[in-house]
Design brief:
The complex is a heterodimer of chains A (about 280) and B (about 120). By secondary structure, chain A is an alpha+beta fold. Chain A has seven helices and five strands; from the N terminus they run αααββαβββααα. Chain B has one domain. The chains are: A alpha+beta (about 280), B mainly alpha (about 120).
């Protein structure tokens, strides 16, 4: 038995099956990301006024790397336009153009993920240290001459671990000071190098990396961006499948294949759309 | 017969012309989205002295970009009625969710989150 309306539109709705399916799925995705954005809003609004890290729970505004985030936004927008152009190429019967546009899309997707993991790595090796005299320092941590890294979760440090392993002092490459907007403060005569500071373990009240346990901002940042990253990965794999092994359908059923690209593209545009909100919200506000 | 095939060819040309004009639209939207991104980032460096205005401006620009993606790349400008009906349901629930969230922001306990963790 043949499944009806796999590529022909159903007369009453004017839609083929997959189009209805993807829109139902995207409708549920709107609610999934909406719920996480609402969690973000509550955490953001309930944060006390002041400057993080001076005020422990103030919102760390401008903490993420804006040039990198802007570049990544451009990468994702580019992939969104290439996927819709790939669909248009199929509509014009130009398979060669379709394929190279899909290749560009998938390359952009993996470039996005690569850049994101570079940012993640920076956060995992970045620490905030609160001293017993009330001061706070942030920077890249060095313990016994080693930097803790992203892929080794076991290598994260805490005050408890420093004490347990009898580490007498740590070194931290101190970040430049920031103003209320998160902009780097330009102090006359001050060096912009990451000056290394030695801190005795006995003076530390708290030490934590830029990970969810340290601040609600990191919790919500990692949760939303990682979920978004999984969407990028999933979308990239599906689009890569359509560009190569799945493309043999172009010879047997070009209409259905073109529809598949449209539906895959719809998902991809949605992922782009989420990032359009995510970028200003987590990087700039 | 020959007339019929001629008609088919003509409609094929129309179709190609149609898609070609779509491609032009896509490229214009692409430019607009990149411009929007640059404006969003520039607004970050403007001091509006009010957080509400800062957030409002950022979300306003993001909404325009989202509209361009949804309307043109996702073809929502000319979609079938069933898709709009589905999205209306999502829009209602999404608005409800955000409305409740904003309502809730008047009532959040301040300075209580994780205080015990590390404030000496």
């Amino acid at each position: 038995m043949e499944i009806p309306y796999t590529y022909k539109a159903r007369p009453d709705t004017g839609l083929y099956n997959a189009k209805v399916g993807i829109w139902l799925f995207l409708a549920s995705e709107i609610m999934l990301f909406g719920a996480l954005f609402s969690a973000y809003i509550l955490l953001r609004v309930s944060a006390p006024d002041g400057f993080w890290p001076d005020v422990a729970l103030a919102w760390p505004r401008g903490l993420l790397n804006i040039p990198i985030g802007t570049f990544n936004t451009a990468v994702l927008i580019t992939s969104s336009v290439t996927v819709v152009l790939a669909w248009a190429a199929l509509k014009m019967n130009n398979f060669a153009r379709f394929r190279w546009l899909m290749v560009v899309t998938v390359i952009c997707a993996f470039a996005f993920l690569g850049i994101k993991s570079f940012e993640y790595n920076d956060k995992f090796s970045h620490y905030v240290v609160r001293l017993k005299d009330g001061k706070a320092v942030t920077g890249h941590l060095e313990v016994n001459g080693k930097h803790p890294g992203f892929w080794n979760f076991a290598d994260q440090w805490s005050l408890g671990r420093l004490e347990a392993e009898k580490v007498e002092h740590i070194e931290i490459a101190v970040d430049p000071a920031r103003d209320i907007h998160g902009h780097v403060k330009h102090v006359e005569g001050a060096s912009h190098d990451h000056a290394k500071q030695k801190i005795a373990t006995a003076d530390i009240a708290f030490l934590g990396s830029y990970t969810p346990a340290t601040h609600p901002f990191f919790a919500v940042y990692f949760l939303i961006t990682a979920l978004h990253g999984l969407h990028v990965l999933g979308g990239a794999l599906v689009l890569a499948y359509f560009a190569f092994p799945g493309a043999k359908m172009w010879k047997t059923n070009p209409e259905q294949f073109t529809n598949r690209i449209e539906v895959g593209g719809l998902f991809w545009h949605f992922v782009d759309l989420v990032w359009i909100f995510l970028f200003p919200v987590v990087y700039l506000l | 017969m020959s007339e019929q095939s001629h008609n088919a060819a003509a409609s094929h040309d129309d179709h190609d012309h149609d898609i070609a004009s779509h491609i032009k639209t896509y490229l214009i939207i692409f430019g607009a989205l990149l411009l929007g991104t640059v404006i969003t980032v520039l607004m970050y460096y403007v001091d509006f002295s009010s957080m509400a205005v800062t957030v409002g401006v950022a979300l306003f620009i993001a909404s325009i970009k989202a509209f361009l993606v949804a309307a043109y790349f996702m073809h929502l400008m000319s979609e079938k009625k069933l898709v709009y009906s589905l999205l209306v349901i999502s829009a209602i629930f999404f608005t409800g969710l955000m409305g409740l969230t904003l309502w809730g922001t008047h009532d959040t306990p301040k300075n209580t989150l994780m205080k015990t963790v590390y404030v000496p």
